[in-house]
């Protein structure tokens, strides 16, 4: 059953942006009322009283009983305009309703329960549709529509046709999905960016170049040491003269040995 909230309103004599701005400066909210052949009338309501009346209720399906000109008029809020930067209400549209006439309005859908696919398989409950449009008599306007999702497994869905609203006609398409349980989302591992790869590879390249430079430097050092004779590892080459003398001595010894048989007989 819809809630009924009482609110005092008064006719606003002047119209236009200037008059609306002036009303806001006085702590009032400009408004209009229309419906059932009534000419659109400009109203104003106290800003604080309006905020209090709408606290804790769903504005679109709450009956606002306006005290206007000594009469009580039942209305529904068709539109609320708020300040772009602040939560202040700057304008309200009221639509007059009669008890014997059905009205069209949207009611919120609230999901009830913890789905099986969420509890036992780590799935995620996704609510696709959050309100549905209905046609109903004012006295049967529901605060909200509840939908039990406890039995849903991964891949299961509930649709508008699964809703049950007593004394109301659902106007939203029956095949529209309201809620579904989807598989758990896999964690994505971010691939290294080109910049990161370059930063990681750069020290390796520098190390290889330095190793190459060190090898070239060592080879050059060995070459210099051998040429100067100061290197401990380099072996001194034998002098050319010494080698010739040794070779000559060996030849002389051979000659002497070969000549001994000739001088062996004495005369």
CATH-defined topology of the domain at 4-97: Ribosomal Protein L25, Chain P
Terminal Cα span: 163 Å
By secondary-structure content and strand pairing, the structural class works out as alpha+beta
pLDDT under 50 segments (min length 5)?
Answer: 223-267
Query: Which CATH architecture of the domain at 4-97 is right?
Result: Beta Barrel
Let me know the average pLDDT: 79
Secondary structure layout:
Elements lengths: L3 E5 L1 E2 L5 H9 L2 E8 L2 E9 H8 L8 E6 L2 E12 L6 E8 L6 E10 L3 H6 L2 E4 L3 E6 L8 E4 L8 E3 L8 E3 L6 E6 L11 H35 L11 H20 L8
Parallel strand pairs: 1-5, 3-7, 8-11
Antiparallel strand pairs: 2-4, 3-4, 5-6, 6-7, 8-10, 9-14, 10-13, 12-14
Overview of this protein structure:
The protein has 267 residues and is of the alpha+beta class. Among the domains are: 94 residues, Ribosomal Protein L25, Chain P; 78 residues, Ribosomal protein L25, C-terminal domain (RNA Polymerase Alpha Subunit, Chain A, domain 2), CATH 2.170.120.20. It has 5 helices and 14 strands. The strands form 3 sheets. The protein has a 7-stranded mixed beta sheet with strand order 1-5-6-7-3-4-2. Strands 11-8-10-13 form a 4-stranded mixed beta sheet, with no helix packed on it. Strand 5 and strand 6 form a beta hairpin. The longest helix has 35 residues. The radius of gyration is 51 Å and the shape is globular.
